Amino acid sequence: MNRQNKETRPYLDENISVEDFLDFYWLKVELQDFCRKKGMQTSGAKTEIAERIIHYLKTGELSQAAKSKKAPAYPEKRKKAASMSLETVIEANFKCTQEHREFFKRVIGPKFHFSVALQNYLKANAGKTYQDVVDHYYQLEEDKKKGKRTTISGQFEYNTFIRAYFDDSANKGKSLQDAISAWKEVRSRRGDNVYRSASEAE
């Protein structure tokens, strides 16, 4: 797999080098499409999917974790949902399933949703209880009312770029479309996708 000697965005297939893969920005749907064609798992965070692809590009083999798994039977999932309570322990590798969503909506209310901040909490706090999840949800809502910003996870490069774009006083009065255009220009080039002001770019 040879690195392509050009700045244009390469095609994502089994012939791309690891270096080129890491040097360019890929949409999650593009990563999932690659995995689907290779019989790899398409679920999980964007960073997890990227790690599966990197392993494949380096070795030509699927990692054990990347192999597609058959989904559990629907009745079994319903049984699990019915057994949930506030004392239920957060399992390792927590996944935001429809059953979990229904449970927390019953406890918190119809406005409940799995925000990125809440998903990060769930992934980092295996062993705590669903009561802790509910408490953290309300804390996040309170922080939001106070105008406290949540930290954007590293995998959400687009969100980070857009926030930084509007934080730059030089872009005062610019529209979201202007920010998106700037993002598209940056992501099409080799390298990171970090927003840089005009003075930093010089």
Automatic annotation (TrEMBL):
InterPro entries linked to this entry: DUF6434, SAP_dom, SAP_dom_sf
PROSITE patterns, per the entry: SAP
One Pfam family of this chain: SAP_new25
Protein's recorded name: SAP domain-containing protein
Domain SAP: 23-57
